[in-house]
Structure of DUF1349 domain-containing protein:
Amino acid sequence: MPDSYIIPWTDGAWTHSPASVTEIIADDATQLDITAVEGSDAWRRTAYGFVHDTEHALLAPLAVGEAMEVTFHAPWEGQFDQAGVFVKIDDERWIKAGVEYADGHLGLGAVVTHGSSDWSVGWVDEWLSSTITVRISRWPDAVIVRARADDGEWRLVRVAPFSGDAEASAGPLLAAPTRSGLTVRFTRWARTAADDALH
């Protein structure tokens, strides 16, 4: 992967404020413990019929040719506990990618929304105790999602269409649709050049 630039947490703006944010100094770096509001989520219409625009996403601009990486860990316990990266053009066009705890399993996947949401997911229960990194690369016509556990191999998660003409922003995401008390520790937020190949 290309050299990375650490993004200060203060460079981001929240889509919706979380319940609390606590700064932790570790290894000469500032990490964030972020607690989600119960009922927070991002979803539009498909299969469920509802619209949820209450996610907690800390966003900074993401240009074509750039990538963002977000690293985090948490105790995954509540139905639909989730964390990862959010990429947003507007309320009708966005992507969330990362992990979500559902039906007793930790799933790695993405929700791509263009008016309505879809959902692709596969189990990664072996990642339950891991530190997870999600990487989003923005191409002229697509977003490429990769993820890894700890220092493991990068795994391709999704290739999704995404307008290269629109202004977009991206950054850390968390949500807790069904419970209070989900706290995710975000340890790193970085910007790099986008991946130059899929394979």
In short: The first strand starts at residue 5 and ends at 6. The chain has a mean pLDDT of 95.
